[in-house]
Every structure is written in C-alpha cells, then in structure tokens.
Amino acid sequence: MTSTPTPLGSRTLGTGPAGLTVSTLGLGCMGMSEFYGAPDEQAGLDTIARALDLGVTFLDTADMYGPFTNERLVGRAIAGRRDEVQLATKFGNKRGEDGSRLGIDGSPEYVRSACDASLQRLGVDTIDLYYQHRVDPTVPIEDTVGAMAELVTAGKVRFLGLSEASAETIRRAHAVHPVTAVQTEYSLFTRDLEDDVLPVLRELGIGLVPYSPLGRGLLTGAVTQTPAQGDSRASGYFPRFEGEALAANLVLVDRVRELAAEVGCTPGQLALAWVLAQGQDVAPIPGTKRVRYLEENVAAAGVRLDDAALTRLSEAVPRDAVAGDRYGDMSSIDR
C-alpha cells in the first residue's frame, strides 16, 4: 500500500478496432453546469484546463446537462486543444430549453438530430465516444444502435457506448455494432453491476466507465449532513443522503476514513484507488468543478492497494450495508 508520483497513464476501453485509449482517470463535467449547487462557468473552464495539463484527457458531458450549457462549456474549454482530448457525450434524456424533462428517446430520427446538435454545441467535427444515456424501452435497442452506427460511418462519431444498460441489452447492442464502453454507477457504495453486467463486459471485451465513483461525494468524507437546498442531493432523488440512510452510510464512510489514514491518503483517494484496482479496462470519471478536488483525485492514481488492503476495504463496506437506493426513482434504469 504505497502512494507513488507516477504519471497518470492510459487505459483502453474496448478491444480490437473498437478500442479507444483514454486517460486512466477521466473528468465528469456535469456538476460544472447543474445539479450539485450553483454552476460556476469560470471554475469549470479552469478545472478542465488543469485536467488537460495533468493528463486527464477523457472528458465526459451530455446534452441534458444544463440543459445544453455543459456541452458548450466543454467546447469552449477544449478549443485549441481538441487533439489532446477523448471527448464523450450522451443523448437520450430529452429536455427542453427551460429544463423540463421530456422523457427518453432512442428513435433513429432523434439519434441523428441529437448528434448534430451536440457537434454544434461542442464546436467539433467528431465525437470520440457517443453514448445512449438511458435505454428507451419503447424502441428496440437494435434500431437505436443501428442509427448510432450510421453516425460512425458518416464520420461524426468514432466509438459507441451505452449508459445504464442491462446485460441483455448490451449483448443485443453489441451484436449490431461493437460497443466500446458501458457507463454506469460503480463505487464501494454501488456494486450491483458485478453480478451480471461486468461479466458480460469482460466476455465481450467492452470497457467500463464508472460514474459517481465517489458515491456523489459521500466517500470523500466531506458530506456530514444532507446538502443544502439547491443541491439535487438534498431532494428525494438521492435517498442515500436522507435521514437514517445518511446516518448509516456515514458509519461506513468512517471505516473508509480509518483505512485511508493507514494507507496515507484521503478517503476519496482510497475509494478511487479501489475502483481503479478493479481492472485495466476500467476508467472512472469522478466529477468536480474545483481544481483542488481534481488534483486530489488525480493523486489517487498513485495509490497502490495490495490484495489484503482491497479485501479489508471491501469487508469494511459490505455491498448490502449501504442504505437507500442510488436513485429515488429507478424506473429509467434498464434491468
């Protein structure tokens, strides 16, 4: 269990022609524009610039963040540095300009129009990794991925991904066109994908991109009470931050904090190191809008955990000990 100042390095998502090499650690840009408190555009621009300087070149956004403003922010941030970046964005969660939620759309027509709109907002000619953000239960996945494959042929997209897709959906999608990566929530606090999804990814040679690898901030140890109003974690949308569930989860965080002290790192770094240790085909995208937190996250790539430490950490946070569903409404999650 040592911390070393090694370069960040890279990992490859997918295999063969479907392989995309990305930085070992990515950057989730969502919170720069919405959900976790007031947006701060300049802080977001500064954070992305610092990320690129540190070798964090795998940037994740989506059209629905803002809505639409996060893609524009990322586009501004990478102007003049496009060649350094592996750019990922997503479609499927429809929203209006006023922020209203309009449902999930996986129709081929929407796939095409959403991609063109994202390219324009991002100010780029090609998206490196294009995800379906949520699976549309009313449209066969074969039709959605077929339309996404046409974007690859047209040169608008390089690689395809799915977000929050079930094992069966992943198989069906991959049969239409190689899927390079699946993005889903994965952390010490969310491990259900280990049962069905992760084995299928390994079987098919598909990379895993964990979002919320820090449990939406819980695993950093910085959250000690329900966040203030204006932060989406204060709503019933995230039950793990409420009442008795939060109290139970903070007990688990205390265990992580104790182990982190032994290792000589922060709780968040230990939690990230655990995710990174799950395989070379895993590239997490912790989100932040502050340079100091970015730098802390990057340092996690230098934390080395031996088998004994990994076992102790998994035992300190048993899968079934985490209180509350990860979303108050799980109906949009493909299962």
UniProtKB/TrEMBL annotation:
One of its GO terms (molecular function) is oxidoreductase activity. Residues 25-316 form the NADP-dependent oxidoreductase domain. It is an enzyme of class 1 (oxidoreductase). Its EC number is 1.1.1.-. This is Aldo/keto reductase. The keyword Oxidoreductase applies. Keywords: Oxidoreductase. Transmembrane segments: none annotated.
